[in-house]
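Title: Comparing notes on inverse folding

I've been comparing how different people in this forum approach sequence design from structure. To keep things fair, I'm posting one structure and asking everyone to reply with a full sequence. Here's the target:
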């Protein structure tokens, strides 16, 4: 597998619709950490193809964008809108203990999507880890910027 760089822009909406405390299963958290450790950069993409979502994994946060919708332009920049974010805690009792996590919703009616992301993330991580076993994957070179609606766009 060849290594390459992908540059993307993602907009984080200013308003948070909801936050909730939950737990990430240890198996998912451990594979996320392994994926980051094996990568060349600070961020990696995890495609969740069955849902048409993309997870952008960083050490302190995992953000999710819908690949089928939510594209916006702001100040001459185009990019996808972040729908959800997971913010796992750094504290946990053991390697096999669930990890406390804050789930952040930027749009309403995403609780069912959130549950499905939890179910589909494990298989998506397995596929990606199997593909890159022993090989470095490309670094994400991008940025997340606030998305502010202009008065004309409503």
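Reply #1:
Here's my take.
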């Amino acid at each position: 597998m060849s290594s390459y760089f992908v540059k993307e822009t993602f907009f984080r909406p200013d308003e948070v619709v909801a936050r909730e405390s939950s737990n990430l299963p240890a198996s998912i958290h451990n594979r996320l950490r392994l994926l980051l450790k094996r990568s060349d950069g600070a961020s990696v993409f995890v495609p969740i193809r069955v849902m048409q979502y993309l997870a952008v994994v960083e050490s302190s946060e995992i953000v999710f964008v819908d690949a089928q919708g939510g594209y916006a332009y702001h100040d001459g920049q185009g990019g996808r809108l972040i729908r959800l974010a997971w913010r796992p805690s750094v504290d946990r009792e053991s390697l096999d203990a669930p990890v406390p996590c804050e789930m952040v919703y930027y749009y309403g009616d995403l609780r069912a999507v959130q549950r499905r992301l939890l179910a589909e993330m494990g298989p998506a991580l397995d596929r990606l880890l199997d593909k890159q076993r022993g090989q470095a994957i490309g670094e994400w070179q991008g940025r997340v910027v606030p998305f502010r609606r202009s008065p004309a766009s409503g």
